[in-house]
Automatic annotation (TrEMBL):
Tagged with keyword Metal-binding: yes
High-level lineage: Eukaryota, Fungi, Dikarya, Basidiomycota, Agaricomycotina
Positions contributing to Mg(2+) 2 binding: D29, D76
Record function comment: Adds a GMP to the 5'-end of tRNA(His) after transcription and RNase P cleavage.
Protein name: tRNA(His) guanylyltransferase
Length: 274
């Protein structure tokens, strides 16, 4: 900014760096998506097209922001885990939050027609966001366990709720009243005995949510035949003494699996390593 007499206004800007040496989790949530899903005719209780679109936008965000190691999504929500050592935008909260939120939203709009080719957008979707810092690996694991447990609880309720409406002929008010005070076992029994729905056979995507992970790519095997030694060259002979570290290659993959148990985390220690 030019050093004019007006430059003093910068003094009103508040610094907002996030605590160093902590994990950053940015959670984005669809704004007024109940209305948005109704306006655009989303299938109930789950619209796979909408979930695939969310996955696409989240995966694009992970490809764009290399310090995001893991993302978890359910319904109209996605949580992104930044590595502990990230220095993205000097860890400025407002910069990280606004850039990621706007990028994700832009991708959602950009790829909309791929998943809803016959449904034009009637108005712009929007997402709100927040960043929370977590100090320990245990807190991070518990956070993602919380979100996945929430996915299961919500999906079981919604699956039963919409079965009561679509197959049982109840109104929304009646369905809520029927489910009031019920536990998981009751909902399972209700689905199977009344509607022939085995909840265990419902796709994992709906029950577990979407886990988008930055996986390490295994280096290719080097035993592809012996290489001939090049002619002696003093300069290159000297340079060859300096070994270069192989750059760690990663790829972004979408999974639908359990992330509460050790089975997910132990083989992927790089997700939480500094």
């Amino acid at each position: 900014m030019a050093g004019t007499k007006f430059a003093y206004v910068r003094n009103f800007e508040l610094p907002d760096p996030l605590l160093p040496d902590t994990y950053l989790v940015c959670r984005l949530d669809g704004h007024s998506f109940h209305r948005f899903s109704d306006e655009h005719g989303f299938a109930k209780p789950n619209d796979e097209r909408a979930l695939l679109l969310m996955d696409h936008a989240a995966k694009s965000a992970m490809i764009e922001f290399k310090d995001i190691m893991l993302a978890f999504g359910e319904s109209d929500e996605f949580s992104f885990l930044f590595r502990k050592s990230t220095n993205l935008y000097n860890r400025r909260q407002s910069k990280i939050l606004t850039t990621l939120t706007s990028y994700f939203t832009s991708c959602y709009v950009l790829y909309w027609s791929q998943y809803f080719p016959d449904t034009p957008l009637r108005y712009p979707p929007s997402f709100d966001g927040r960043i929370v810092v977590y100090p320990t690996e245990r807190a991070i694991r518990d956070y993602f366990s919380w979100r996945q447990a929430d996915t299961h609880i919500n999906n079981l309720y919604n699956t039963t709720f919409w079965a009561l409406i679509q197959k049982g002929g109840q109104t929304a008010t009646e369905a809520h009243a029927t489910l009031k005070g019920t536990v998981s076992a009751t909902k399972h029994e209700m689905l199977f005995s009344q509607f022939g729905i085995n909840y265990n056979e419902i796709p994992q995507r709906f029950k577990k949510g979407s886990v988008i992970v930055r996986e390490i790519v295994a280096p290719e095997s080097s035993d592809k035949g012996e290489k001939l030694e090049p002619p002696f060259d003093p300069f290159h002979q000297q340079c060859s003494k300096v070994k270069k570290k192989n750059k760690l290659e990663t790829k972004v993959e979408v999974l639908h699996c359990d992330i509460i148990s050790d089975e997910f985390w132990l083989p992927r220690r790089h997700l939480l390593e500094n």
